[in-house]
Write the structure tokens for this entry.
Amino acid sequence: MDDLAKLIERVMRERDWTLSTLARRSNISTSTLHSWKSGDRATGSRGPSPALLRKFAEGAGLTVAEVFEAAGRTIPAPMDAESEGRFLHLWRSLEAEDRRVIEATMQAMSERSQSRS
């Protein structure tokens, strides 16, 4: 199992890409990838955001699970299209303040889940 820095190095080596190429393909700044590669992860106390990790996975041609595992994050559970559609329908029906409350609750639950793993 690679950690995130080793995963970045492996992708660059196997594909013969520079950090700039990887950054461009992932639509992530070179400085962000450099901080991940150097082990600094200067992207907040919890490490890289899930959104950036997903962008990296897509750009590097890796699975989301592989990238999240390397970053030490909880691997997101799959969601089928029907469930996602129901969730988005409900989400869109909420007022802005209710969305903020739900988002804060979900964030707290996610952080609690990550702290247990």
Remarks:
- The longest helix spans residues 96-116.
- Residues 96 and 102 are 10 Å apart (CA to CA).
- The helical segments are 4-15, 19-26, 30-37, 50-60, 64-70, 81-92, 96-116.
- The chain is about 70% helix and 0% strand.
